[in-house]
Amino acid sequence: MPLTTIEEFNIKRLQVIDEAGNADASVAPDISDALYKRFFESIILARTFNQRAVSLQREGRLGTYPSILGQEASQIGSALAFEDSDWVVSSFRETGVFIASGYQMALLLRYWMGDERGMRCPDGLNIYPMAVPVGSQIPHAVGIGIAMNYRGDKKAVAVYFGDGGSSRGDFHEGLNIAGVFKAPCVFLCQNNQWAISVPRSRQTAARSIAQRAASYGIEGIQVDGNDVAAVYKAASEAVAKAKAGNGPTLIECYTYRLDDHTTSDDATRYRTKDEVEQWQRREPLIRLRLFLEKKGLWTQAYEDDITNKALAQVDEAVGVAEAMPHPVTADTILYTNKELSPRQILELKEHGG
Amino acid sequence: MSYTKLNMVGAINACLAQELEHDQDVVIIGEDVGRDGGVFRVTEGLLDRFGPSRVIDTPLAELGIVGAGVGMATYGLRPVVEIQFMGFIYEAFEQVFSHAARMRSRTRGRFTCPLVIRTPYGIGIKAPELHSESSEAVFCHIPGLKVVVPSSPYNAKGLLASAIRDDDPVLFLEPSRLYRAIKVDVPDEPYTIALGKADIFQDGKDLTIIAWGAMLHKAAEAAEGLDAEIIDLLTLKPYDEETILNSVKKTGRVVIVHEATRIGGYGAEIAAFVGEEAFGYLKAPVVRVAGPEAVTPMAQLEDEYRPSLERIKKAYERTLSF
């Protein structure tokens, strides 16, 4: 037998709710009506926050901000598959994950206003500060997972990154190590098709990002990232698998960034209006609304009510964020080390500490 | 108190064993640290004694190892990462600079990173390319990171214990030239040597010599016959300003000796500090003896690259001539 097949791969794509709002019973997960409504309400809240953040940036009240418009199902469907005792390691475009995980919106605003206090994760949550160097957060989740195994904690760690991040060495080293040590990691690739101006096709010649899991001996699956039920199902299964000691999973959430990369970007320079319009028809809220309506869980009055509540919550968060006192310069030194050196103490005095 | 004659490899090994014993949160991770006991045998025997969940052989992935170390540290462990040679640390630089060193700051204290990265450094073992780097200054420039260089088996053991118990990240640079060069009595009991404190290696009144790691011994050899005060910096960052100032006030003359290239080398920081803080006491310009602006050469030329006894002596003579 000079030439034999030593391994074959079969990468699946999961969609539960199609664009017309019809669920496929053969794959539909066991999701309560209450949870479906929570998905809907969380998407509305995240979208309301996101829209306000973009407006605040335009008004000069917020710094550069990366919109999540279009990616809410990928973020919320996955975030809600985890518990508060689990850990979340994220990129900078994960507003929906933060909000769905219970992170205060006022803190998120402070962060995007340029205030480090916004990334002080409240006690009781284990959400890593969002990583700015793309993909560099992936190995952190692997270490957290190894530590969970070491301590015998039945927990999982979610790690978010994009299609661009999947091209970095961090992705390779992280997934590879996680596979070797069966770290309880759920790798959530938010494939939003564009890394600023570079399309997904320039990130890898592979047909999917999901299939790259195969080379690390771990399971990979692509899900329709605009289908919150599919994302939740895949993430829940991956979380259960991780907590059972069966190792990591790579989930490619196939979605689309409908807005510019950040408020400093102009996406019309590199992609067509047609493309964006096509994806607007596939965005996650439309199909979830249709699906809920068919289940008798949606009315216009219901949506108006939760939209108003979301607006009020966001208004309140903006109020809280803008009322926070200016950060103090001394904090930059105070938090550099636990014990300050004599030089740092001198510098602290020079900076009003 | 009982003592055992140990070289630096043995002293570091003893420290690691004691810290693993002392604290269940301490784990060792790196390439070849387990079954092989490390390429320099620094972790020899630890796998057998503490098991594979605490002495962890990893895939070959410096970025991944340090990045995973960051995650483990923020979760509450005290990982001691080994990078096989300093010349291979650069892949992990982003993890050190952008994550480990600033985790406390960017989360305003919610997450911290008690991570130690140990790596052999410097010229001296006739190894292949990029096995003899001394890029300590690059790392000293990172806010939040401590940088430590032992010079003897005794201080290696005590400093490493402090580094592992420290609540912030520490880069622990082990002069490979000294691994097996010196054997001294090392206390069997655990002890710590405070970070940030220099050691007066030799008292003197005419000249202050500042050095660290393997170069300390060469700087001392070159000073034979002189009434020189020799400061072993031990912790490069934060460095012991007080000990330096007290010495300069006494001698008025300073020579800094290091192996790394001169421009932007750590001697520049020390010299600038002395110039700023002790100008009135100086009788002579502060002089650096350092490597040339050239990459660290391979084995055949490494002795020529290192500051020679003659060059160091000439610097002392020049300083003393003012």
Give me the secondary-structure topology:
The complex is a heterodimer of chains A (353) and B (322).
Chain A: E1 12-14, H1 33-58, H2 72-79, E2 87-89, H3 95-100, H4 105-112, H5 138-151, E3 157-162, H6 169-181, E4 185-191, E5 194-195, E6 198-199, E7 219-224, H7 228-243, E8 249-254, H8 273-281, H9 284-294, H10 300-323, H11 330-334, H12 342-350
Parallel strand pairs in A: 1-7, 2-3, 3-4, 4-8, 7-8
Antiparallel strand pairs in A: 5-6
Helix pairs in contact in A: 1-2, 1-9, 1-10, 2-7, 4-10, 5-6
Chain B: E1 3-6, H1 8-22, E2 26-30, H2 46-50, E3 55-57, H3 62-75, E4 78-82, H4 93-99, H5 103-106, E5 116-121, H6 136-140, E6 146-148, H7 153-165, E7 170-175, E8 184-187, E9 199-202, E10 207-211, H8 213-222, E11 228-232, E12 235-237, H9 241-251, E13 254-261, H10 266-277, E14 287-291, H11 299-305, H12 309-321
Parallel strand pairs in B: 2-3, 2-4, 4-5, 5-7, 6-7, 10-11, 10-13, 13-14
Antiparallel strand pairs in B: 1-8, 6-12, 9-11
Helix pairs in contact in B: 1-7, 3-4, 8-12
